[in-house]
Design a protein that fits this description.
This protein is an all-beta fold and about 80 residues long. It has a domain of about 45 residues. The protein contains no helices and five strands. The radius of gyration is 14 Å and the shape is globular. The mean pLDDT is about 80.
């Protein structure tokens, strides 16, 4: 069994260059949802896993909303079961 030391994140298996870091969010009722998403730190990779309404989604577009080009067309979303 592989273990991860506290303070280290798993390597991205897609690119092998970035790490997968957890992101948290708030649910519809305002409750904190820890580890709602895992995203690769390599900006050229873009691999991500997200949980929405109990379903897992892979590789949805990731955009930097601080840039003026943040408005991008989104491809159809597929869920992974």
């Amino acid at each position: 069994m592989n273990t991860v030391d506290i303070g280290q994140f798993p390597a991205c298996r897609r690119c092998g260059e970035g790490d997968l870091v957890p992101l948290s969010d708030f649910g519809g009722q305002g409750a904190a949802v820890q580890y709602k998403a895992w995203v690769c730190t390599n900006p050229n990779c873009g691999f991500n896993l997200k949980i929405r309404n109990g379903e897992v989604f892979m590789n949805e577009p990731v955009t930097d909303v601080s840039t003026p080009q943040a408005q991008v067309a989104r491809p159809p979303v597929r869920s992974v079961r």
